[in-house]
Amino acid sequence: MDTYLAEQAIEKVPLASRGMPVTVMARPNVSLDVGAARSNTRGLKLLNIRRAQSAVRPDGNDNADQATLFVTRNMLASLRKNLDRYAEWEDTFQDAQKTVAYNEDDGDSEGEERRPRNFWLFETSAAIRPTTLRDLWTDDVERFPRSVGKTKWEVWTRKGFQDSFVRAVERFGILSVGRPTEFVETVVRNVVASPEELQRIVQSSAAVVELRSASSFVSDFFDMIPEQRAKVIDQIAARISGPLPNSPRTTILDTGVNRAHPLLSRSLPSARCYTVDPNWGTADQKGHGTKMAGLAQFGDLAAVGSSSAPIILSTELESVVVAAPQSPGDVPARDAIKRAVDLVEKERALRIFCLAQTAEGEAEDGRPTSTSAVLDQLAYGDGSDTRLFCAAVGNAPRTPTEPYQVADYEDRNGRFGIQSPAQALNALSVGAVSLKGNDQEVADLLAPIGDLMPTSRTATSWAKPHAAKPDIVMEGGNFEMDALGLYAQPSASHFVMTTSRDAPERPLALSGETSTATALAAGLATRLLARYPDYRMETIRALMVHSAEWTPAMRAQARRLISAGMPSGEAWRIILDRFGWGVPNQERLFFTASNALTLIAEDELLPYERVMKDGRPAGIRLRQMKYFKLPWPREILRSLSNTQVEMRSTLSYFIEPDPHAVSRDRVVERYPSHRLKFDVKRFGESDARAQHRYNLLVPEDGSISAGSDEGWLLSGLSQRGTIVQDIWQGPAYRLADRDGISVAPVRGWWGDMSNLENYERSVRFSLVVSVRTPEQSGDLVAEISNKIPAGVLVERAVATLPT
Fold first, then answer.
1. Bridge-partner residues for 675, per DSSP?
2. Nearest Cα to 678, choosing from 662, 661, 690, 664?
3. Which of 24, 359, 490, 558 lies 20 to 30 A from 185 at CA?
4. What burial class does residue 15 get, using C-beta atoms within 10 Å of its C-beta: 0-12 exposed, 13-18 middle, 19+ buried?
């Protein structure tokens, strides 16, 4: 017991919850009685029970029931005391007639004829001993890992012990595979560990309920005969409920969708299948669109198929064929996107657009093209009815005869610029990262886990200054190198499983690269919209970026660049050009924690006004800035003193484009109708001083940095896109004073053209500000609950300070 308690203290398991698992062995041919115990009941906590089978056990012993229970130090002492009383009772009262009815919930024995607590457990058991890994194994015993090396395990854990489990996994360097799956009382994870390492996780976390063999739905499914595959798909379809009518939609702008697929038919009625050219039809003749639909609606079906949990859909689908089934006959990309929007918007609905296609042949240097300008134009709309497009950054070229060259990965595809239209300022531009699997499964994987997916394009080759793109990255699979390490090809076991247009014969297929990442992002954004249907599209985009985090592999690249002498801000700029702000953290988007506070403001301002001189127009100047006095958890922050905390600020807005600015060589400052920037009140500064200082800094022409004082990650580097974000880290007592933020305009083409009277138009923006403190530092939301002004929304998000 002492070893368990000491290890659990390191992982910060609450004192009253520390303990150890014990295994109770039943008497031969007797059914073990554990009463109504569960993993979350008071008293003895039942982790698992394994009933005897008719066959003889492989170790040659008689087969018998066994149960694994979790006991704290106090529970163990009580169990021993009750066992002593049971022994005394058994010696004294052999005549069953002298007993009275027994209630498991009774207290200690109160009289000679009252059976002791845990009576039926003792009556049916033969021995109680410390638990081994084998005792936690609830799968077929023949499948229990026999190797002393690393093995895949499926680990079932108690819901209330996730923090200690994650800390233990990180402390021992255990590799997690895939995402956790939540059930009512448990959370299931896959890890790669040796038996010795896993035993230490059991001791340290107090979380493990049971162990099973790690399933591989992908390989199992493709090994099945067609009839078995169809049966599995029907079983998955039977678990689906929803979506409700009028749920938000993911609009797939692609090659069409096979809506007859058993997994898609609930979400996509035939009336929502469109085509921009009637001669093309609405069917998916190339197969790409059906894959995107499955990804948007279900994510990785390998995880879905390996589970038995209900699938509750909160979003619907919509499909528009924007790519010609056969060449020639293509409609220009810009025209196809515009037609697609016109088609679907005949029916009013909340929707997120998924554009996993790229405009081949257009510029890849970051400058606007006709297609990216149309995307910006459609996203902006009239300024009040905006749209959100998730756009793929494109893939580095490869063919079967000219595969991807490993040498191109050295600088993370630095010579392959992001493809059009993902340079659109108003789009949520999506790159790909390799997250699936682990380095030990395939020794010749090209991308380290958490690093750039091998063919994902980047903005590192773009001329500076330029907007930060991509905005985020999501799973896109991985490649395997050949024996000589010259070329790389897709690794099937590391791609993502999704729906296939060839159902019912081949209902599932594998997908990867940036189109897969984009569909996953669009699906996530649509689910976020379903959660918050009243939020603006600017806010949905802001939250997707605000929640994103860099993986350890991405952070390691920044550290290497800084160690080589590169200024910190420039190093992080390279990381932004490769990965954007990282991978969206779905826990931060959808779940809550007391140590993470998020404030959301949706507002607008008038960026321009006409100047009159002697009664006549004399030009246009900047007009208005906004200052937000933030409800701030000052008491908690001041109590934390020098403890390092984090503030993240994100400003999201859409612009009206002027693509002709390219011809005038004025892309950065005159392509957008306006720009917006933010500035945060500094330590020791009054509100009035903060506003006055920033007002003086805002230039009529040019740009200003989002954060220009000490502690900002980008070190004052200017940001040119319509997502402006920076991260401040420093001592908590300094953040306690930083409770104000300014939003101000920067001049764009609206300020040049007085004849159009755009200077009279207001512009919308969404501002997201979050504070993260160490765990157990206090409830940030509770402190500010009475300070929240009108128009400011407050959400909690799960997060911990990055290392």
1. 746
2. 690
3. 24
4. exposed
In one-letter notation, the amino acid at residue 321 is V
- 219-579: which CATH architecture? 3-Layer(aba) Sandwich (3.40)
pTM score, whole prediction:
0.76
Task: Collect the ranges in the chain with pLDDT lower than 70.
Answer: 39, 53-63, 90-113, 178-179, 181-184, 215-220, 222-223, 328-329, 437-443, 592-594, 663-665, 667, 696-708, 715-718, 776-777, 786-803
Distance, in Å, from the CA atom of 172 to the CA atom of 763, rounded to the nearest integer, reads: 51
Q: Exposed, middle or buried, 495 (CB in 10 Å: 0-12/13-18/19+)?
A: buried
Q: Pinpoint the residues of the chain covered by CATH 3.40.50.200.
A: 219-579
Is the separation of the CB atoms in 335 and 343 below 8 Å? no
Q: What share of the chain is helix, strand, coil (3-state, %, to 5)?
A: 30, 25, 45
Classified as helix, coil or strand, 526 is helix
Nearest CA to 753 out of 668, 670, 676, 677 is that of 670
- The alpha-helical segments, DSSP class H, found in 147-225 are 162-171, 195-205, 217-223
- Positive or negative, the CA dihedral 690, 695, 696, 700 is positive
- Exposed, middle or buried, 474 (CB in 10 Å: 0-12/13-18/19+)? buried
How far apart are the C-alpha atoms of 178 and 155, rounded to whole Å?
12
Task: Tell me the residue length of the chain.
Answer: 803
Closest CA to 313 of 230, 389, 221, 250: 250
Strands, E assignment, 362-435: 389-392, 404-405, 428-434
Q: DSSP secondary structure string, 319-360?
A: EEE-S-SSSS-PPPHHHHHHHHHHHHTTS---EEEEE----T
User: How far apart are alpha carbons 404 and 440 in whole angstroms?
Assistant: 22
